[in-house]
Design goal:
CATH class of the largest domain: Alpha Beta
Radius of gyration: 21 Å
Keywords: Metal-binding, Oxidoreductase, Zinc
Order of helices and strands: EEEHEEHEEHHEHEHEHEHEHEHEHE
Structural class: alpha/beta
Strand content: 25-35%
Distance between the termini: 21 Å
Oligomer: single chain
CATH architecture of the largest domain: Alpha-Beta Complex
Family: Belongs to the zinc-containing alcohol dehydrogenase family.
Shape: globular
Largest sheet: 7 strands, mixed
InterPro entries: ADH-like_C (IPR013149), ADH-like_N (IPR013154), ADH_Zn_CS (IPR002328), GroES-like_sf (IPR011032), NAD(P)-bd_dom_sf (IPR036291), Zn_alcohol_dh (IPR050129)
Number of domains: 2
Cofactor: Zn(2+)
Organism: Kineothrix alysoides
Bound molecules: zinc ion
């Protein structure tokens, strides 16, 4: 008891500081995770810039990789040997709500109920040296998978939940709107699902990277009408699956309009600002097109993500835009909010 560890806390607008807090102790059925790498996700970026008004100070971090440091009572050391590498799905699964019982744990009513009783600074707690997690949240990964790549388990899992809703069949046309990190993970996953992948992205450098990642067709939505262009590629029908990874409502409307009859249009990104747009009920009636969303990773998609990374079926290397030791976390956050970066990773 009384041992200290360091965390990276957002303390005010555009400022992070390294703070010392009490080291967590693993309770029954818990693992003390020694965190090695933590990626800075959009949520933490918005908290840093104060677009999101989480109370400060705040220790974010949920895209984490590391190793088993200590086991609480009841955890099998054969399953989780000390020193063994793990990643963690940090969001809660209560196991007893309506959604959990239907196998849709990403909508669990206790999703964000953090056990903060031991925490001196609020937050998800991944941006620190240690975190106590439930053994059920931990996934073993191979020792040879670098921590920086393993930290993609969470964002890739979010994307795989989205991909699943696209119900892609071999040979389908898939449009991904937006070539940020989430767009790129959609490109790679859709390609793996056997689709012809079309990316809409204004930035030429991002289009180039998407092509390196296997994207079949890329185009600039500022140079041509995206809906007409996608229709021209698909005999006028539109794409079987469209994934909107941008937060712009005008784009959300285009996403629906470029989806084929019987197709699936998935609103992956949250919308800022959240402006409603019109959909014709008659068009839905006649087209049978499905318009839906995707939020957070399910247990199933997290498991798939771990498999894809562990077996090197998906390699996120090109999406790592920088790695910073936690002492330079200020630089890391400043880099993360720049539009030209994909994922910035803080190491501990
Ligand atoms: Zn995330
Ligand atoms: Zn639940």
């Amino acid at each position: 008891m009384g041992e200290k560890m360091r965390v990276v806390a957002i303390t005010e607008e555009k400022k992070v500081e390294v703070k010392e807090v009490r080291m967590p102790q693993p309770k029954e059925n818990q693992i003390l995770m020694r965190i090695k790498a933590c990626a800075i996700c959009t949520w933490e970026q918005r908290t840093f810039t104060r677009e999101s008004h989480m109370p400060l100070p705040f220790v974010g971090g949920h895209e984490i990789a590391g190793e088993v440091a200590q086991l609480g009572k009841g955890v099998n050391p054969a399953e989780f040997p000390v020193g063994g590498k793990i990643v963690a799905r940090l969001i809660n699964v209560c196991g007893k709500c309506y959604f959990c019982r239907r196998g849709e744990e990403n909508l669990c009513v206790e999703l964000n109920n953090l056990d903060s009783s031991e925490m001196e600074i609020m937050g998800t707690g991944g941006m620190g040296e240690y975190l106590a997690i439930n053994a059920s949240q931990a996934y073993r990964i191979p020792d040879e998978l670098p921590d920086v790549k393993a930290a993609f388990a969470e964002p890739l899992a979010c994307v795989l939940n989205s991909i699943e809703k696209g119900k892609i069949e071999l040979g389908d046309d898939v449009v991904v709107i937006g070539g940020g990190i989430m767009g790129m993970l959609h490109v790679m996953s859709a390609k793996l699902s056997g689709a012809r992948v079309i990316l809409s992205e204004p930035d030429p450098e991002r289009r180039r990277i998407a092509e390196e990642l296997g994207c079949d067709i890329t185009f600039n939505p500022l140079e041509k009408n995206p809906v007409e262009y996608v229709r021209s590629l698909t005999e006028g029908r539109g794409a079987e699956a469209v994934f909107n990874t941008t937060p712009i409502s005008a784009v959300a409307k285009q996403a629906v309009e470029m989806t084929a009859p019987m197709g699936r249009c998935i609103m992956y990104s949250s919308q800022h600002p959240d402006k409603p747009f019109e959909i014709s009920p008659n068009w839905l009636h006649n087209s049978e097109t499905i318009v839906t969303g995707a939020v957070s990773p399910s247990v199933r998609s997290f498991n798939r993500s771990v498999n894809l990374l562990a077996k090197k079926i998906i390699d996120p290397e090109k999406l790592v835009s920088g790695t910073y030791p936690y002492g330079n976390a200020q630089d890391a956050f400043e880099a993360a909010v720049r539009p030209d970066t994909f994922r910035i990773i803080v190491t501990f």
